[in-house]
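Q: Please design a sequence for this.
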């Protein structure tokens, strides 16, 4: 008979990760979650059912063997777990922190049917941090050189992943980055308290140690064109992201004190504008800040404004809490830190003083109507519900669009009606011979891990093409409807 005293392991609740207190962390840029201890990681890993047909792997854009690395954590083989992840994911410490596992791998976890899904992201972060912090990341043996050269345009997650895959296949790789720092959105878009820059730099350093050449301050389309690169390289991969801001086109957006989230976060994250008196691009000292938008970028902007000394920070979002596109964890952290949410609210105009500085935003209450093309219920204005929010800074975080500089200077490479590069979904091939593209410049704003998956797929196809010298098979052109 089974021993009645022997209880089954608790599987319904995930192991909580310790975090810094809100009243402390809202005053600095240090990381918020503290990570698992070995004991916590093993306790969480033991919740895994080790399914015979795991669906979580199918939810991962780069195909990590999730049950495999989780089992190794249970066994205390932390370094081996990290090695298994690194076999397909060059940025595990990054993905463990910022990827939306709750809508990708974790949403497919069987445990989620009766309780909390396995904390796959937390476990990935633990394994990656364990290996990185102990300096046990020896470089793999260098493969025989193929004599082929590949140029990577953009050093975000798509470009870095593509570079890492290609250099391991023996190709000579050069990465061209427009900014003075490598990492793309990982360094200019995501704040230090969510993703420490040292972690990104560690991954970049590993690529450099493997032989990847990195050229910064190189704006392709201005310094050189893609055609110029094709004259000296056998293949080109474009992973420049979609970093141009979008605006609301309402009266007053040209007032002083109105920022795009791109500018606000870039000044703070990349230019370290919070180092007042020393920063080359200082940022406005604000007291009352409103952020328009409900995604992760909006949460990052609001929490950054708080850390830069604002007394009050508001999120202004036109739909309800249910429709907020930001990760639940980011919304939770923002609320803990004191961010004020004005939901079902939409700005209609911006007011300023006689000197041209913003003083407030007029907003209109909304109610939800029928679903729109995105599947979310459409916000409908309520007549006569206008009200004023006094602010001295306004940040617009309603989305990004592709920067047109590379597509406009690359004849023969087709874009769609949104200005995104047309590329094959599986291979990344563009309509221009020997040019591949992937990440946000192809899909529009998406996730770090999906951009990495695109970089990985393109690298594999580039390798096949360079080694076979086959004919170029471009994706079918698309019709740009007005």
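A: Design:
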């Amino acid at each position: 008979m089974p021993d009645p005293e022997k209880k089954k392991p608790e599987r319904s609740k995930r192991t909580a990760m310790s975090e810094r207190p809100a009243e402390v962390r809202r005053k600095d840029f240090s990381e918020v979650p503290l990570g698992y201890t070995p004991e916590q990681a093993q306790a969480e890993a033991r919740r895994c059912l080790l399914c015979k047909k795991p669906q979580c792997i199918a939810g991962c854009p780069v195909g990590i063997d999730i049950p495999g690395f989780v089992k190794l954590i249970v066994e205390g083989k932390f370094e081996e777990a990290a090695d298994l992840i690194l076999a397909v994911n060059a940025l595990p410490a990054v993905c463990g922190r910022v990827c939306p596992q709750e809508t990708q791998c974790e949403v497919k976890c069987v445990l989620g049917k009766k309780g909390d899904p396995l904390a796959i992201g937390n476990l990935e972060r633990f394994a990656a941090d364990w290996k990185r912090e102990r300096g046990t990341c020896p470089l793999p043996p260098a493969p025989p050189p193929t004599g082929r050269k590949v140029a990577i345009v953009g050093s975000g997650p798509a470009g870095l992943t593509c570079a890492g895959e290609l250099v391991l296949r023996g190709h000579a790789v050069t990465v061209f980055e427009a900014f003075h720092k490598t990492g793309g959105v990982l360094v200019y878009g995501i704040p230090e308290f969510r993703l420490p820059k040292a972690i990104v730099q560690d991954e970049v350093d590993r690529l450099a140690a493997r032989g990847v050449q990195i050229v910064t301050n190189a704006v392709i389309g201005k310094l050189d064109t893609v055609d110029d690169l094709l004259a000296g390289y056998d293949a080109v991969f474009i992973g420049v992201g979609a970093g141009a801001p979008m605006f609301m086109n309402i009266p007053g957006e040209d007032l002083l004190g109105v920022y795009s989230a791109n500018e606000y976060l870039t000044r703070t994250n990349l230019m370290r504008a919070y180092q007042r008196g020393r920063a080359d691009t200082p940022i406005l000292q604000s007291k009352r800040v409103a952020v328009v938008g409900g995604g992760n970028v909006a949460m990052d902007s609001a929490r950054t404004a708080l850390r830069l000394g604002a007394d009050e920070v508001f999120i202004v979002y036109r739909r309800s809490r249910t429709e907020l596109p930001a990760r639940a964890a980011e919304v939770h952290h923002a609320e803990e830190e004191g961010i004020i949410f004005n939901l079902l609210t939409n700005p209609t105009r911006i007011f300023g003083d006689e000197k041209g500085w913003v003083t407030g935003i007029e907003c209109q209450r909304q109610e939800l109507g029928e679903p729109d093309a995105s599947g979310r219920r459409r916000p409908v204005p309520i007549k006569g519900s206008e009200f004023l929010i006094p602010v001295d800074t306004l940040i617009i975080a309603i989305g990004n669009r592709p920067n047109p500089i590379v597509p406009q200077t690359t004849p023969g490479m087709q874009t769609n009606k949104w200005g995104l590069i047309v590329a094959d979904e599986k291979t990344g091939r563009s309509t221009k011979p020997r040019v591949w593209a992937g990440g946000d410049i192809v899909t529009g704003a998406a996730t770090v891990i999906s951009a990495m998956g695109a970089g990985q797929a393109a690298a594999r196809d580039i390798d096949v093409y360079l080694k076979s010298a086959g004919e170029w098979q471009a994706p079918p052109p698309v019709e740009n409807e007005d």
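Q: Thanks. Anything notable?
A: The domain at 22-133 is CATH 1.10.1060.10 (Fumarate Reductase Iron-sulfur Protein; Chain B, domain 2). The longest strand covers residues 358-371.
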